[in-house]
Every structure is written in structure tokens, then in C-alpha cells.
Amino acid sequence: MEYSHRYAAYPTQTVAAELERHIDIHRQAYNYTRYEYEHVESDNIGSAYKHHYRLPGWKDEFPVFSEVNSKALQRTVTRFYQNLSNLSEQKQNGNNVGRLKWKSPHDFKSMTFSQSGFELKNTSGRHATLELSKIGDVRIRYHRDIPDEADIKEVTVKKETTDEWFVSLGLETDDEDLPEKPDVDSLDTSNSIGIDLGILNYIHTTDGLSVNWLDLDEEYERLRREQRKLSRKQEGSNNWEKQRVEVAKVKRRIRRKVLDFQQKLTTWLVREYDAVFVEDLDVKPMLEQSHNARNKQDAAWRQFITLLEYKAELYGVHVEQVEPRGTTKECASCGCESEKPLWVREHSCPSCGFECDRDANAALNVLQRGFESLGLGWPESTLVETALPVGTTAVPAKRVVETGSPTLNEAKAVA
Ligand SMILES: [Zn+2]
Questions:
Q1: 301-315 and 238-272 are packed helices; what angle lies between their axes, rounded to 10 degrees?
Q2: Ligand 1 centroid vs 322 CA: distance in angstroms?
Q3: What pLDDT sits at residue 381?
Q4: Tens-digit pLDDT profile for residues 225-255
Q5: How far is the CA of 337 from the centre of ligand 1 (A)?
Q6: DSSP label of 337
Q7: Pick from 58, 245, 335, 353: most CB atoms within 10 A?
Q8: Is this structure's pTM higher than 0.85?
């Protein structure tokens, strides 16, 4: 499986200048690939693989292309073709897309080393060193170890709009080195969990846990303030440029906080359970969420599920996305459907009389569908007794962020 780890990087001034110079050469290579693709007739054009054969000729003609790592140069040519194929995919999906654009220095902020040209060193402490061919050593904040069995396939160095540097390591772990998932037949409700992706709560689980939204009010207030300041400056001026960086920093801080929260929550889930079931967002009607600005901010549900799925592989846990339609309407006890406007917070079945929290009922349906999707039956009569927790425990997101788990410390019971 392939995944990536991202680290903050702290190049010295000299190395940062080299990085920028190299990125700019790659930008020119990208633009030149585009130029040749559009204007040059040759057998060696039309795919990244063929286009790579033109590189020796480039280097003869423009010695500057010899100054960067040659695998990385190939990777930049590949990047053009990848963008091209993304573009045609979007076209096929009916989106109105133009042609690939020429990249200005402002639009081209990264380069990628592929297979070679890099070495990660001194990984025992809080910082590590990344050696980049023809550039030099870059210190990175090594806050997450790379698993022993993982290979580093690629290294992408990027300068963000905040002017900060990051490196992203593309990792690959052989599937046979991954822990085995528990036998499906031995799963039971006590080590499996269904999750309702919430409107009022972030998640609501069948174990009676509701984890609240991350409180980002302060950050959003700050963002509005900085954006207002930006709008008062003259576009393109020095002050405008400085303020633009401030805005980008606040945005990044928000993204980072959300990611940190999601990292902790998903790690806790895959450590705690053998199977985790969530709704399939690709088909989930977003209707209920459209009016809620809070959700839009960082619903980032896709990111949450992506993290969950990749950790499931690393920890050997089943993660299944289930059909989300009707999870709220359907009674988890008898399956009978009843309409339920958003403001109705309780599930009270007109058919069988089963009562519980609206989101708890939805989570139970997710759990049930998860079992079905793994091909397991469900003793329907015992569902409610065995799976339904006595009450719901509301947990502030802050606790997850601070302790890494929603279940540590005393929780406030609300039901
Ligand atoms: Zn019912």
C-alpha cells in the first residue's frame, strides 16, 4: 500500500535558495514539456515514458537542465502528463476545462525526487536530515517515524504560500508486511463500531460516544479579521503580499488543527476496534449539511475517511463504507422507516416503539450495514439489547486533541 508522511522542513538560507533555483529549473522543464507536446512533431512525444528520451537532447541544448537531478527531471515531465490525464478525466466527467496552462513561478512551488537522489539520515531524534542530490541537507522536524518495513519511493519538496517549506515522503509498504485483519467470522459487536458522521456532533458511535466538533471559532474570527485587512490593501503591493502570507498562515493553522484532531481520532479507532463502519460519502446526500457553515469549514470528511482507511491497513482493521441512504429514517430495531426532520433529535419508532438518540440510531444502522457488507448476518432480535449503550457520552474534541483518546478521563454523561 502507498501512503505519505509530511514533515516541516527548515533549510538553511543557502539551501533554500538552491531549492528555489532547482524548482524554477523544473518549472521551465515543465513548461518546455508542454511546449513540445503542443508544437513539436516527434515519435518521442505523447507519453511521459517516450518524452523522457528527449531529455539528453534538452541537456545538450540547455545545459541548465543538467544542473538538477535527472530522475527528478523525468518526474517533472511525468507530472505534465499526469496533469494532462487528470484534465482529460475531468473533461470526460463533463467539466468545462481548458488547456494546461503555462506555469508562472507563482503556480509552481514544488519538485519531486523519484526513486533516487535523496537519503533520510539521523532519524533517532526529533529532527532528521534529508539529503537531496545536487542541493544539500535539509533539516526536517521528524514528528512521525517511518515504519521499518516502509520504503521511501518519492520525496516532494514544497514551498507553501506561507513561505514555509515542507517535505512529503511517498511511502510504500508491501502488503505482506502489513498485519492481518481479524477473521471476519469471529467479529462481534463488542469490537466493532458503527459511526454516524454527524451534523451536530462530529461522530456518533454505536458505543455511545459522541465526539463534538473541534472548536475553531477563534481561528475563524482571526481569519475574517486578516482577510478584511487584506481587502483594504492594494493588490500586489508589499503590504498586500505580507498580509496574504498572514491569511495563508491562519488557513494553514486551521487545516493543521483539523488534521491533528482527525489523526488522533482515527488512530484511536483502529487501535480500539477490529472493524469500523462508516457511511460512504460518495453517495451520502449532502442535503442535510448544506446550511451548516460549521460543517463546510472542515467537514473534511473525505480526509477523515482516507486517514481511517489507510490506518486500517497499517493496523490490520476492517474499515467498510456502507450505503448511507436512510440510516437516519430507518429504525435500527425493526427496520421500519419514518420521516425525521433535522430538528427531531430523538428516534422514536412508530412501529416497534424503539427509542434512542437520532444519531445513535443512525450509527446502529451503519453498524448493521457494515456487518452485512462483510457477509455477516445479524441477530436482529438482540441488536438493540446487545449493541445499544445505556447512554451517550459527549466528549469535547479538545480531549481527543490533548490525550489522543476520547475515552480517557471522566466523561460527561448526558443521557
Ligand atoms: Zn422500530
A1: 40
A2: 21
A3: 45
A4: 999 999 999 998 999 999 999 999 999 898 8
A5: 8
A6: B
A7: 58
A8: no
